[in-house]
């Protein structure tokens, strides 16, 4: 823990005088293809580096050695995104990169052991997004209605604002992960291939999609009766999924050129929105009872509210940001997924105590049939013009999960601070998070994790 705090202090001291803001940033890495700038190509690049100190679940080993805690450095996201608009109606977008590389995992497929392709080394780039779109009704001043259609591997997955969150401007350190309920099972890193429609009608913004889920084929464990049946992801010859999200924007209107929803505007806009969404996939999971296989639909619903409001004298640039969302998930009976972000732990076969139901490392019950309520809030402190421009934004988040497969609900929290050196383009975030650790469906304790993130995007 001391090592991580020391690294955090060194990073802050080393970057405090790095920049007084990037007035030269403008529209970023944009290449105009005509004299008006209406035809252009834009590139966005970002890196998010994590320094961590983590409590491990009971029964964990890391690279063969028993571990109750661990410190590390990892590459949470290393990405590049390109999009081009040659006419007002056509847009093409490509987004690729890597995620979750640590000293033990996240490397290329098949990497293991020791050597040039040892564990954690040389991860493979892959496409996160790749789609084409065409504006049928252009979003022009004076027009209430706009409509764009597109197709490809896309992020218009409906459900909630945070399901389509930008990873460039989170309020907290990261997303809570359960906002992407299909993550890496029937989607490709929160994306599916399909067609989508987006647009606005006055202050109402809409997004709908019709998609082909990626195939899943987990085998359900046979149960003696219905009450013990556990649904697993197995969608066979997948049926098309449907998704949508509708949001009413009461105050300033948000851009919808791209799907990525902003987490914090830092007071640059006056935003208050309410929204609701859904995702539905027929026959997405299966159970087995007495040798008889039964298919179950995946039906997910959410409702949320988002506010980002300047406070006080404009010269102080204070702002409050808040977001709250309620998820109702139905994946079939007793469905439960355990996930640990950048999890370096493995099971210790010699451990004789009570192990975590979620497994080793930092895994926790993340997604399941049941309900989740998540709320976050942050306050951007006043700007002192006579001091170095490092803006400070303390924040906190609370999560309540109540899953059918577990007898006790859980509460967990995140608390931290953003240090903005140049807005979201260059910031350092420090966050402490708790997670529930179940050793039985009715028995749980809590573990913690402290992370410092260095984030830059251009």
Query: Share of helix among residues?
Result: under 10%
Unreliable runs: 3-24
* Name of the top-level CATH class: Mainly Beta
| Total beta strands | 24
- Please identify which CATH superfamily we are dealing with: Porin
Distance from first to last alpha carbon: 31 Å
Outline, from the CA principal axes? globular
Q: Quick check: average pLDDT?
A: 92
| Structural category | mainly beta
What percent strand? over 45%
CATH architecture: Beta Barrel
In short:
This protein has 458 residues and is mainly beta.
Describe the structure.
A 16-stranded antiparallel barrel has the order 2-5-6-7-8-9-10-13-14-15-16-20-21-22-23-24. Strands 4-3-18 form a 3-stranded antiparallel sheet, with no helix packed on it. Strands 17-19 form a two-stranded antiparallel ribbon. The chain has one domain (2-457): Porin, CATH 2.40.160.10. It is built from 1 helix and 24 strands. It has one helix at 2-15; strands at 29-32, 40-55, 60-62, 65-66, 69-85, 90-101, 126-137, 147-154, 192-201, 204-212, 222-223, 232-233, 241-249, 271-289, 292-311, 318-330, 336-339, 346-347, 364-368, 370-380, 391-403, 410-420, 426-440, 443-457. It is mostly beta strands and 458 residues long. Residues 1-21 form the signal peptide. Keywords: Signal.
